[in-house]
Fold this protein.
Amino acid sequence: MTERPGADGRQPIVLTAGSIAGVAGGTLLAGDAARVVDAVSIDTRTLAPGALFFAIRGPRFDGHAFVGAAIEAGASGVVVSGPIEMPRAPAGPEPVVIRVGDTVAALQAVGSSVRRLSGARVVAVSGSAGKTTTKEATAEFLAARYEVFRSQGNLNNHLGVPLSLVELRRRPEVAVVELGMNHAGELSRLVAIADPDVRVWTNVAEVHSEFFPSIDAIADAKAEILEGARDDTVLVANADDPLVMARATRFRGKTVTFGIDSAADVRAAQVRDEGLDGVSAAVQTPAGRTLLRTPLLGRGNLANVLAATTVAIHLGVPLDVIAQRAARLRPAANRGEVLRLAGGITLVDDSYNSNPRALERVLEVVEHEARSARRVAVLGEMLELGERSAELHEASGRAAARAGLQFLITIGGSPAAALARAAVEAGMPASSVRHVAASADAVPLALELVRPGDLVLVKGSHGVRMDLVVERLKAEFA
């Protein structure tokens, strides 16, 4: 990997077939070692011409079956871990073929190498909930002072993180990435690849409980964000989460905290919930005090904004600029979007994903919203909760009843049915609660129930396809 001058004076990193083969511990079987690689890809459906295609073997697919399709789509070459029929390009130079022992490890090695060469300061966000919102807010605040790269969408796993890090070849000053996990050991590997200068730990919650025996085991796995730190590495920790703080004591570097209910370096007081208009608070920081308001919904999102504020202050962004940008934040798609539909219907689209803590927080927002004629919730099953799934869904059912819903539709298997039963047991009329097995079955029910002036919340795990309900409501009441 070499450098060449960029327009702004920084030296972009040039990836070549030979340098990638060297970093990945592979052998160049075909093609020119000096051939420049413009990008990397693992998906022929989105592959850009000139990209190097890594043939990844997964539980449901084998990228080696798509080597020919990659070359036809204009790939500069392929990285493989087994024998293949040597691809031929439709035209142009001979495609590069690099053989490695493991294509996943090779991709990770390339991402890690680019990260080191880039010189960028890397901010990594992890936790059970709020990662994407915190990542986006952090990037938005830092962009006031720095050239910032942010990982796209939900690229937060063993493939998404190295794909994001390869983009640092353009040498941004700061990179903000998201690190996810659902098994012990996964976060440890991602931390080793990304080597973050600043690590943000948002919280610990009952997420992916199917793979862990207890909430403490989840916290221990999340604590892998602490690994490999240097003395100058910074941890931004949630002072309101005792599971986070109990483990933060062993962090080698510097710890700074944010919180609402506990003493913290960046703390919100006089919190005012403004329903669907967001939340505001007086925030005390090492850089001074400010009134911070965000249109993002609820105290959970306030905590996310506080985490982002803590990072931005550490990296020298003025507090007044942070407050200005916080007021302009908008939720990521399907993550608490407030949509105004025909007939005065307000749709809260939180359909991307769900967990018990996040659901309780958004139900609190619904509870305090008094401007709508009625409150309707369409709630999907929360997946990967393991043996405690029924218990956690029942608690969510009671939270739904407390929110003062006039109608509740639940979608999914027996856990979602348990949520519906618990809502009735907590006081909702049985005639106001319906349960169906699939999102497609919920659509006609929702269209029948929703009236002008209603507030409608749609939330559930990604695998339940709550987006089908959202899209139909949007089409019906456009």
